[in-house]
DNA sequence: TTGTACGCGTTATCAA
DNA sequence: TTGATAACGCGTACAA
C-alpha cells in the first residue's frame, strides 16, 4: 500500500503536487511533472486510501442500503426474490456512479441508524419501513433518504418514496378476473399494511365497481412462519372452495397456494383461478404459468438509486415516484367452474 | 456528529480519558469519571467516526464480498436464488461479529482488486472465480481470502475454499435414478467447468459403476442467454425423447426444463424423470415437486464467513472445507416409461 | 489517574 | 508551478 507521501519522496517533490496530478488539476502543474507522476503511479499501482480521503473530505462515497427485516416473514430476507432483484438494480447503479454499497439488515431501526452514522454514509435507501420508523429516522439522519414501497412518509420533507401503483395494479387484475365471469373472489395476504393494504384496496375497488359485496371473510390470511404455514394452507384450501378465484398479494403466495391446492387434488385453473402480483421467476416457470401483475423490480432499484444520487448532488426530486404496473395474462385465470360443482376436482 | 475532542472539552477532561472509557479500559480510569463520561456519551448519542478509527488503526472492519459475474449467465447475478441465500448467511455472520459487508459485483477481476485495496478491507470472500483469477488475486492482496465453490485454488497458500461434495452428490442422485430402473440418462448443464464439471463427473462415475456407457451426446447443453434459451430448449426437449431421465445441474434448469417439457405435452415423471441439484424454493414449490440434491446454501455462507473471521484473528484454518449433500426424494423421478413408448405423451 | 503530543493518508490553504 | 503546513477524528505511547 504505497502512499502519496512515499511517492512524493521518491520523486523528489511535494505531496501536494502528487495530489494535484491525481486529481487532474491540470492548470496547477507542468506537463513534464504531470507525465512523470502519472507514469510512476501506474508503475507502483497506487490506490488511494479511502479512509484518509473520507476523513479529509467528510464524505464517504458509501450509500447504505438498510433492509428492515420483518420478524414473521422470511428468516432470510434476502431470499425473497423481490429483494434480490432490487439489490441488483441498486448495486449496479451505485457502482456506475462511483459509489459503494453497504448492506445492512436488521429488525431494529435504532441499530440501522447507528450503523449509518458510524459510516457517515452519504445517502440512505430504506426498505421495509413501516409507520413511525420514518420519523425516528428523520430526526437522527439529516442526509438524503429514499424509501422503497413505504406508504407512511407523507409529511416528511427530505424523503422521497419510490413505489408502485399497487392499488391500480390489483384493481386491474381483479377487474380482469371479473371480466372472465368470476363473482366469488377472495384475497390472500399475510397482513393489511403498506403495500398489502394498497393491493387489498385495489381489489375492493374492483369488486365495488362490479357491484360485488366484500366481507371480512373474503380475506384469506396466510401465516408465513414456516411452523404454521402448513396448517394455514390447510385452512385456506378448505375455505378456497367457496370461491372461484383468488387474488394473491404476491407471486410467491400464488405459487405456494397452487402447490397446496394441487396436493389436495384441486386443479388450477379448472377448479379455481389464481392470480399473483410481482411477476417473478416463480410464476413464469410454474405450470400452469401464472397470470399476474407485472412490476419491474430491477427498475425500481435503479430509480431509487438514481433519485438518491440526484439528492446527493443537491438536485430537486419529487417526493413520490410511482412506477406503473402491467397485466401479464398467462394460464391460471380462466372462466369459473360451474357454480354447482363445488366439490373437489 | 460530536467528536471525542468536544466531549472532552465539555467534560473538562482529556480526549485520552474519554477514549479509555469508550474502550472499557477500566483499570485506567476512576469509577467516578467513568460514570460521568458514560452518561454523557448516552446523552449526546456519541458515534465514533469510523474513517478516523480505521485510519488510526489501519484496519477497516469491512469484509468485502466480491461476486464475479459471468457474462453469459444472469444479467443480474444476485437474482440467482443461490447467490441470494448465500449473501444472507454471510451478512448475518459478519454483522454478528461486528464487521460490515461491502458488496461488489464485477466481471473484471482487476476492478474487484482495486476496490478491495481502496477500502482496505480486512478480508475477502470471493464467489465465481475461475482458473487463473485466484493467482491474479493472490499477488495483489495479502490479507485473508475465502473462496466459494472454486475448484482451481489448489496451490495457493493463504486461500481457503468452501465447497460442496458436488461429485458425490451427483453420483448418489444418478445412482438412485439407476436404481429406479433407468438406463438412458442424460446430463443437462450450460458449461463443463468448476462446479458443473464436478457434478458431471459424479454422473459419469455412477454410469460407469452401473456399466452404462457415456457418450458426448448425452451431455445436453443449455444456452442460458435469454435470447437463445427458447431455441435451446426446443432442441433439448427434442433430444430428451431419447432418454428416460435427465440429471440437471441445478434446480433452476430442472424447473425450466420441466416447464418446457410440459409445454410440449411431455409429462414429468410419466414421460420422463427429472432430477435437480441445490434444493431451493423453485423445486420445492413446483408440482410435481422436484427430486433433487440438497445443499445448505445459507450454511455455506455462514461457514465461509466464520472461516474468514478465524483467518482474520490469525487462527489456523483448513485449505479446503467440503460440505455434504443429501438426497431429497420427491416426485419427479420414478420408474422409466416402457421403452417401446417413445413418442409424445 | 489523567493529559500531551504525535501519527494514520489525504486534501486544502496559502505562501514562495 | 511548487512546497510547507494545517486539518480531519481517533488511538496510544509516554510523560506528568
Automatic annotation (TrEMBL), chains A, B:
Any one GO MF annotation of this record: transcription cis-regulatory region binding
UniProt cross-references to SUPFAM superfamilies, sorted A to Z: lambda repressor-like DNA-binding domains (SSF47413), Periplasmic binding protein-like I (SSF53822)
Domain annotation HTH cro/C1-type: ranges: 2-47
Pfam families: LacI, Peripla_BP_3
Keywords: DNA-binding, Transcription, Transcription regulation
InterPro entries with a match to the protein in the record: Cro/C1-type_HTH, HTH_LacI, LacI/GalR-like_sensor, Lambda_DNA-bd_dom_sf, Peripla_BP_I
Stretches assigned to the HTH lacI-type domain: 2-57
Keyword Protein biosynthesis: no
Family annotation (Gene3D superfamilies): 3.40.50.2300, lambda repressor-like DNA-binding domains
Domain of life: Bacteria
Name of the protein in its database record: LacI family transcriptional regulator
Organism the protein comes from: Pseudobutyrivibrio ruminis
Statement: the UniProt record of this protein carries the keyword NAD: no
